[in-house]
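Entry for the shared binder. Reason: the reviewer on the internal report wants the predicted structure included alongside the sequence.
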Amino acid sequence: MTAVTAPSDALRRLLDLLASGASTEQLAHVVVAARAEGTLGASDLAALASAGELALRIRETLAEHRRREAQLTALFETASELAALSDPDTVLRSIVRRARALLGVDVSYLSLNREAENKTYVRVSDGSVSAEFQQIVLGMGEGLGGLVAQTARPYATSDYFTDERFKHTRHIDSGVKDEGLTAILGVPLAIGPKVLGVLFASDRATREFTADEVALLSSLADHAAIALDSANLLDQTRRAVAELNEANATIRAQNEAMERAEDAHDRLTDLVLRGGDLPDVADAVAGVLHGDLTVYDADGTLLANSAAPVALDPAALAAARTAGRAVSTE
């Protein structure tokens, strides 16, 4: 390192280190080294110390700007990814995965509200290892998540089990303890006044969630709520279209059957009016059914057939008489 012989040398060194993204230790060492060398007077050392403190604040500001820029970039990428998804379950998995990565937490999870039951259910998680935790159901106002779902406001705690702001219940605390969680942040998933659920970020150690982290997760939740609502609407549209297609197919089949019945009625009526006998009728009916027809009387005597006669099946005949409906002989 070049010796400091004048205040300008030290100041230039501080600026060079700032420009190169040096660590706080490297910046602080400039002042320490100048004192050790003893070439600067007391007033120059005091000015250099002030400049060093300013350099450290500038470094922290630049680091904070870079961090926020990285977060905004990640948030933009997340919004773009969510907008491209159309399946609700895929959207949910993407939301919790992104939340965990954005805040660097151990576990992220998401609950969805069921208004009719006045409850919110944990639906999907990322990083969770507890089956009990993954099946937690929170009543509105219960625990941290139930309070977020009820009030549509974000809540955070550095130590959930010692935080008396929340209504602790046995089954919620048991699930959280089984997962080993301590610090929890929850923000509402909402479209206007309607709360869809809650998005959570949590750590297994004590952690103070900053205002910036609350704002970041809230921004993600806003994008996520829109994407989830759009995916649900698209899914409902798909189901409605499928049901409509099924109904159309049923109506089309019924119409075709009615047309065939009308055609058969017309053909048989015309045949009878022209004096057709039983063999003629048998041929006509066989044509309508696209098959062969054999007619027997009650005593089993062959009366007519459209092709080679089919042998009478006494067992099938008895079953048909008992049931009062047609019976297959196959």
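Summary line for the report: Residues 269 and 275 are 10 Å apart (CA to CA).
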